[in-house]
Amino acid sequence: MEEDIHSKTKKLINDLNYFMVHVISYFVVNLPLMIYIFTDLGERWWIFLPAILWAFGLIYHSLRVYGTDPLRIKNKGLRMVFSYLMKLSGV
What we know:
- With 91 residues, the protein is mainly alpha-helical.
- It contains 3 helices and no strands.
- The protein has helices at residues 2-39, 48-65, 76-89.
- The mean pLDDT is 75.
């Protein structure tokens, strides 16, 4: 029993550490890029796409770490809401 709690705690701490590395790397990479882009945007609007897609990945990662995995929902009500949102988004 104690080993099970220990392994779950260790996994949670590792997940939180990886999530923090993900958040820090997102800002370290994207903040200088955004500052550079806003100085002379011109026709380079497409450069925002990697930051936006990475943000979606970061949001998904945060949901998984904090206990809500949107792709593995067991609660029927939440699953219905998620499927409705997916239909609205056209996915």
